[in-house]
Amino acid sequence: MAGVIDTSEFHNGMKIEIDGEPFVIVEFQHVKPGKGSSFTRTKLRSLISGRVLTPTMKSGDKVGKPDIEEKGMQYLYVQGDDYYFMDTRDFEQTFLSEKVLGEAKNFLKENINVDIMFYNGKAIGVSLPNSVDLKVTKCDPGVRGDTVSGALKPATLETGFVVNVPLFINEGDVLKIDTRDGGKYLTRVAVAG
């Protein structure tokens, strides 16, 4: 543990340590009731297991500051259930299992730069860019005149991930996909051809 953090310093996205496990603050609320002492309601997600806790802490309580380091790395390849990354500074390689990556594996294409999170020297997670550009490898063709507003169809991307897209999208198009909320279509970057 690298230090302590007071509950008054909490903010969304902050990383804290409770009982030797690193967590990220998803939500928090400082509450000052008319009677009694103030407290902080929190929603925390474990950076290792993904479990969610909702502890209430008294004002002035202190939690640990985890020994977390983020390194800029480049995604190289997948072998079995392991995804390999290379440090762009010293060319050292590390891997994350499919289980640890979770949904992030849907947005990894070769040579994409990501941040790998290390806790006490062990790789525990990945931070993706807010959006990635991925090519459509399979989808039904767009039909001229089929212009129902808001209608969507499934499209398979180069990573194997399936996303709902507007009817005018065709195979070979390159799409900008939002990585933050499960992979939503944002816009078409390039048309096939």
Automatic annotation (TrEMBL):
Localisation: Cytoplasm
A single BP term in Gene Ontology: peptide biosynthetic process
Superkingdom field: Bacteria
Keyword Cytoplasm belongs to the record: yes
GO (cellular component) term, any one: cytosol
Coiled coil ranges: none
Pfam families, per database record: EFP (PF01132), EFP_N (PF08207), Elong-fact-P_C (PF09285)
Molecular function via GO: translation elongation factor activity
CDD domains for this protein: S1_EF-P_repeat_1, S1_EF-P_repeat_2
Segments forming domain Elongation factor P C-terminal: 132-188
Pathway named in the protein's UniProt entry: Protein biosynthesis; polypeptide chain elongation
Main location: cytoplasm
InterPro entries: Elong-fact-P_C, NA-bd_OB-fold, Rib_uL2_dom2, Transl_elong_fac_P/YeiP, Transl_elong_KOW-like, Transl_elong_P/YeiP_cen, Transl_elong_P/YeiP_CS, Transl_elongation_fac_P
Cross-referenced SMART domains: EFP, Elong-fact-P_C
Gene3D superfamilies, per database record: 2.30.30.30, Nucleic acid-binding proteins
Classification via PANTHER family: ELONGATION FACTOR P (PTHR30053), ELONGATION FACTOR P (EF-P) FAMILY PROTEIN (PTHR30053:SF12)
Family: Belongs to the elongation factor P family.
Protein function: Involved in peptide bond synthesis. Stimulates efficient translation and peptide-bond synthesis on native or reconstituted 70S ribosomes in vitro. Probably functions indirectly by altering the affinity of the ribosome for aminoacyl-tRNA, thus increasing their reactivity as acceptors for peptidyl transferase.
Name of the featured protein: Elongation factor P
Gene from which the chain derives: efp
